Amino acid sequence: MKKIRLYQNTAFKVGDKVELDKDNSHHLLKVLRFAAGKNITLFNGDGQDYCATVISAKNVTLVEISSKQINDTESKLDLTLAQGIAKGEKMDFLIQKAVELGITRIIPMQTERCVVRLRAEKVQKKIEHWQKIANHACEQSGRSVIVDISLPRALKDLLAEPNHNGFVLHHCATSGLSKLKHSSKATILIGPEGGLTDQEIKESTDAGFKPLLLGKRVLRTETASLVAIANMQLLWGS
Predict the structure, then answer these.
(1) Residue 119 and residue 59 share a domain
(2) Structural domain of residue 148, as residue ranges?
(3) Using an 8 Å Cβ cutoff, are 91 and 129 in contact?
(4) pLDDT, tens digit, for every residue of 125-148?
(5) Are residues 25 and 90 in the same domain?
(6) Are residue 65 and residue 82 in the same domain, yes or no?
(7) CATH number at residue 187
(8) Helix (H, G, I), strand (E, B) or coil at 189
């Protein structure tokens, strides 16, 4: 059986007996049919992996923390993705893969050409859905930190913040990553399916975001984001 890694927002100490939360307990007992005596790995976002042994697997799952170790899978690059909200499962897919590729945080962007317009009463539910996808991607990819999915932002609010070392992706740019100076921090700004408008690109570059070209071909938003992350990780991260 593959190594089981689960995220739980709980403080862990070696020797503690911990009750797994409802979702994790259901996954172990009902989906994996886990039995007492087997080992799992827990993490809570502090950068550590906690080895635990299941000591009770009945109505609830009780585990005992036996050891901990630092998880060194994080990239040296502090990378933010400011992503125009894409439709339906595209955004789910994009978040999952961005986390696997080592993104640090994700900011859903409400730009002019976004087809998806989140109503105020549904924003929190959507963020919780995206955060759960990100957490599961951390479990699967072996990370022990949590990638924060922020509340949706307007472009003007993002651009008002300093020190982004930002890059705005669009197909009319002339500079690629290979020509850029090495950095330990960056923000990638990319539009939704219809891209950013000319005015949004101008506002971004006026605010200091550097135009970035990924290649000669026009990429879909979910492709462009992941290509940009992968290339930045290769050149500047891990």
Answers:
(1) no
(2) 78-236
(3) no
(4) 999 999 999 999 999 999 999 999
(5) no
(6) no
(7) 3.40.1280.10
(8) strand
Residues 144 and 203 in one domain: yes
Helix (H, G, I), strand (E, B) or coil at 208: coil
Residues whose CB is less than 8 angstroms from the CB of residue 61 and which lie 6 or more positions away in sequence, other chains included: 19, 20, 24, 25, 28, 29, 34, 54
Pull the structure tokens for residue 10.
């709980």
The residues with which 70 forms a beta bridge, in sequence order, are: 48
CATH number of the domain where residue 51 is located? 2.40.240.20
Q: Tell me the pLDDT tens digit for each residue of 22-54.
A: 999 988 888 888 888 899 999 999 999 999 999
Cα 117 to Cα 121: distance, rounded to the nearest angstrom: 12
Residue 71 in tokens: 């998880």
Scanning the structure block, which residue is given the tokens 């994996």? 32
Query: What global pTM score does this model have?
Result: 0.91
Owner of token pair 């492709």:
223
